[in-house]
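Memo subject: From amino acid sequence to discrete backbone structure tokens
Action wanted: Derive the backbone structure tokens from the amino acid sequence.
How to read it: Take the token row as a discrete description of the fold.
Attached in line: The record itself begins immediately under this heading.
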Amino acid sequence: MPFLGQDWRSPGWRWVKTEDGWKRFEPFGRALQGGNSQLNDISHSVILTGGDDDEMYASEDCEFAAKKRKKDHCRNNTDSQCFYRENWIYVHKESTRERHGYCTLGEAFNRLDFSSAIQDIRRFNYVVKLLQLIAKSQLTSLSGAAQKNYFNILDKIVRKVMEDHHNPRLIKDLLQDLSSTLCILIRGVGKSVLVGNIDIWMCRLETIRLWQQQLKNLQMNKQVNNGLTLSDLPLHMLSNILHRFSDGWDIITLGQVTPTLYMLSEDRQLWKKLCQYHFAEKQFCRHLILSEKGHIDWKLMYFALQKYYPKKEQYGDTLHFCRHCSILFWKDYHLALLLKDSGHPCTASDPNTCLTPVSPQHFIDLFKF
């Protein structure tokens, strides 16, 4: 009989001989009930009468059938989320005697716990940047489950921003890039490159536009505070705060709060240091922009240079890659300090010497074959 099992170690399906030929036996198992998809208890054995003989089938077959039904139900349920709670995965790019197959971008995106990562303020910007890069160039390389997981995580991010008003500009840029990519794929390239029905993608595109409208109408609640405010700080402290920003748009936004902050945000030395932080001297020497007085306009230089060269990325926490055991993982610094644990099952004598921080672009490059 044909082999149809869970994997290569499975005993396969059970088959029953009838008058019409061989038929696959499907034991009476657990029925999915209600919106919560709860499984009822099942008896330990099922008796099937065929001819004069009675066959007893073990509960293992019943459990397998119940698992399969539950899995099929989850696949058909559009609200289900394909989230894993793993903090590390093994990155293998080719088949070996011990491991068969290879790890794809979609598998890594599914298995690493990005759902919890967005709740950590240190990892939030990192995950958003990764989603943005995937939206620009890697959306079609994700599997159907990974694409579904992608939009579930994106939904969580939008809800979080609507609740705590944290970094809405980043999410607006992400949604704009994602919307542009989907328009090109649906209208220009065609539906053949997208996994799933075209109506599902049209619905997702409408959802993205709804999110964009919600963020556009987002109103920041004015906090009433009778204590010390930002305007009460001395000028040197306000200038020190501005010098700690690594994004030009954050400086401009803060400069719109008060006339004093606007004056400080227009400081030439502030924009010069920002250019020197993000770009090499050879890069901004090729794109010099002079003001009417003949001085270098560092503010215009900054926005001109970021069109030609990538800015230096800065994140509170990132994924790490162990060169010794080829494992990609989230490193919990608090746990590492308490338990002196590297964050993954490493066999190296000193695991910390084998770790490499993984930028969002490096994460995508790891799975290019």
Summary: The longest helix spans residues 168-189. Residues 66 and 72 are 10 Å apart (CA to CA). The chain has a mean pLDDT of 75.
